[in-house]
Amino acid sequence: MKILSVEDNLENRTIISKFLEGLYVVEDAVNAIEAIQKAKKEKYDLVLMDISLEGAIDGRTAAKEIRKIDGYEKVPIIAITGYALFADKEQFLKEGFDGYLAKPYRKKQLIEIIIEHLKKEQFK
After folding, report:
1. Alpha-carbon distance 29 to 38, whole Å?
2. 78-97 in b/e burial notation, b at 16+ Cβ within 10 A?
3. pTM as predicted
4. Residue 5, H or E segment
5. Confidence of residue 90 (pLDDT cuts 50, 70, 90)
6. How many CB atoms lie within 10 A of CB 35?
7. Domain ranges, ordered by start, for the chain
8. What integer pLDDT is reported at residue 81 of this predicted model?
9. Which of 27, 52, 92, 112: disulfide with 79, CB 3.0–4.6 Å?
10. Regarding beta strands 2-6 and 25-29, do their DSSP bridges make them parallel or antiparallel, or are they unpaired?
């Protein structure tokens, strides 16, 4: 399984890679533009999307653009963010994200949300 991790912070990218090492193939994108370009060239099974990305395009907009790419209509996109209120979670889900994970998170939490959404995708 291939995962696209969209994260502008090097430390956070490193944590995700270490947490998922040996479980999934993880490719990084450091901003929204790079994420969209990679999604157009490569098929990923799941996208981990930081919301507060550096640059002109944030994670919300990047997720909407990725959804428009052929083959990504139902690929799970998980919001990973420092916005940690219940209302924030509900808003992200309304905006089309499939899941939500608040920072900081533990390895187990990251793996569980990935497994949950990959299983859902299998049965669609």
Report:
1. 8
2. bbbbeeeeeebbeebeeeeb
3. 0.93
4. strand 2-6
5. confident
6. 28
7. 2-122
8. 87
9. 92
10. parallel
The CATH code for residues 2-122 is 3.40.50.2300
User: Looking at beta carbons, which pairs linking 79-82 to residues 24 or more positions away fall under 8 Å?
Assistant: 79/49, 79/51, 80/7, 80/48, 80/49, 80/50, 80/51, 80/105, 81/50, 81/51, 81/52, 82/51, 82/52
Q: Are 33 and 14 in contact (CB under 8 A)?
A: no
DSSP 8-state assignment for residue 29 = E
Question: What is the C-alpha R_g of the chain?
Answer: 13
Mean pLDDT estimate for the chain: 92
Interatomic CA distance for residues 62 and 31, integer angstroms: 9
Q: Which of 105, 97, 4, 11 is nearest to 51 (CA)?
A: 97
Q: What is the pLDDT of residues 15-53, one digit of tens each?
A: 999 999 999 999 999 999 999 999 999 999 999 999 988
